[in-house]
Amino acid sequence: MSTPSWTDRLFGGFRKTSERLTENLTGIVGTTRLDDATLDEVEDALILSDLGPSAAARIRARLAEQRFGKDIDERGLKEAVAEEIAAILRPVARPIEITAFPRPQVILVIGVNGSGKTTTIAKLAHLFQEEDYGVMLAAGDTFRAAAIGQLGIWADRLGVPIVKGPEGGDPASIVFDAVRQATQTGIDALIVDTAGRLQNKTELMDELAKIRRVLGRLNPEAPHDVVLVLDATNGQNALSQIEIFKEVAGVTGLIMTKLDGTARGGVLVAAAEQYGLPIHAIGVGETMDDLRPFDADLVARVIAGVA
Fold it and tell me: What domains can be seen in the chain, in order of their start residue?
């Protein structure tokens, strides 16, 4: 059996989002003119599909500006919506580029426990390997033995070095060792796992500040990226996580995971509109190849059901 293409997998991943949006848009237009009442219905349909009030209002305004009073059918409406979603997503579609000099590029990966953070680190490492970069992992989430063990298993599978310490060890000293080793061995990208406890924001803040201080002593530019992993199935709750982690950790970009058929994929658009942070990649499943750089136009068309 042939492996499904990335587009097919995206269709699968956004299926419920696309179905929900199609369902909400169906019946709004037959072959009718786009008037205020119709635009109100389109805006409601977008909000119901998790795109968020701000993105929905922006899309409504653009449709009003460009199509008001013109005849439009359902296909035309979907095409127009896809184009406006793409306009929101294009500015944030920015893959992580390994440009740090001196090497390594230090990428801190943060996110609540259960967001798929550890698996995402492995997939990100695999992406970099495909681009011929040397990768090292650092097990900075020392509060869960399971996280250290899981990252170790992934490192073995990928054939990449890992720096780890005992459960309950000091994350900053692990990061310090990792940067020193990565520098000595000429590693291109060092991906650091961090604890995902949000119950005590101050503690997490202190820990991340300590990691940053340690990194600063070795390389004033580090960390080069602070990437927040978000679980799309959390819908609007994912947005509040962006808010908290932006404040606590100085997030520089996002990776959205678990876009695997749930109806919450629209939150990607809400996140782009509300925060404007780069979306580096999205994940649509469990295998190594299920994380890919974020393609704004393709995702917009898939969400609107016209790809």
Answer: 6-92 (1.20.120.140), 105-295 (3.40.50.300)
